[in-house]
Amino acid sequence: MEFKSLKNIENSFQQIRIMGIIFLCMCAMVTGYALWSSFSFAEKQREKIYVLDEGKSLMLALSQDLSQNRPVEAREHVKRFHELFFTLAPDKDAIESNIERALLLSDRSAFNYYIDFSEKGFYNRIISGNINQRIQVDSVVCNFDNYPYQVKTFAKQLIIRESNVTERSLVTSCALLNSVRSDNNPHGFTIERFEIVENSDLRVIKR
Question: How far apart are CA 1 and CA 158, in angstroms?
C-alpha cells in the first residue's frame, strides 16, 4: 500500500513537472510572438509620416524605400540641370544666377562649357540681342545597370527673338555620381563628364 502511494506521488510530481515545462514553453512562445508583433508594428509605424496642414488637420503620408525613388530623382536632377543651364534671359544677373545654381549640380565639365560660351561672347549676344532661350526636355534616358550611371538627354531649345523663333535639337550625355543631399543639391547626385553631343537647327518660325 505504501509503495503504491509513493508511486502515485512520484507520478504526480512527474506530471506536475511536465505540465510546468509545457506551461513555460507556452509562456515563452507567447512572449516571443508578442515581441515579434511589437517590433513589426513599430516598423510599420515608422513608415508612416503624419503631416500637419497649416496646423489645422492631420494627414497621413507613407514613406517609401529610398532605392525605389532613385531613378525618378536621377531624371529630375538631370532635367533640372538642363533647365538652369540652358534657360537664358537677356539679363546678366539672371544668367549668372541660373548658371551658378546649375554648376552646383555638376562637376567641372559643365563649368568648362560655361567658360567656352563666355569667351565666345555667347551670353553677351543673348543680352545685346534681347534674346530669350528656353529648353523643353523630351526625355532623360538613364542606365542604372552600371555605376557611375550613364545618362543621355534629348531636348529642344527655343531661341526666341523679336522677329522669329529658332527651334534647335539638343542631345547631351553625362554620368551621374551619388553625392550628399543638401539645399543646393536636394536629389543627391553630381553630373560628371557632361558633353553636348548634338545642337543643331530644326526650323525657324516667323513671328
Answer: 111
CB neighbours of 190 closer than 8 A, spacing ≥ 6?
A: 105, 106, 107, 176, 177, 178, 179
CA distance 43 to 63: 12
Residue 198, pLDDT above cutoff 70: yes
pLDDT of amino acid 113? 95
C-alpha cell at 158: 527655343
Residue 180 CA to residue 178 CA, distance in Å, equals 7
Render pLDDT for 17-42 as a digit per residue (tens, 0 to 9).
Answer: 788 888 888 888 888 888 888 777 76
Fold of 66-206: Nuclear Transport Factor 2; Chain: A, (3.10.450)
- The residues facing 60 across adjacent strands are 50
| Whether the Cβ atoms of residue 189 and residue 180 lie closer than 8 Å to each other | no
| Amino acid identity, position 178 | N
Query: Can you spell out the DSSP letters for 109-169?
Result: HHHHHHHHHHHTTHHHHHHHTT-EEEEEEEEEEEE-SSSSEEEEEEEEEEEE-SSEEEEEE
Per-residue confidence (pLDDT) for residue 10, from 0 to 100:
66
Q: What is the mean pLDDT of the chain?
A: 84
The number of residues making up the chain comes to: 207
Please report, for the chain, the start and end positions of each structural domain, with discontinuous segments joined by +.
2-61, 66-206
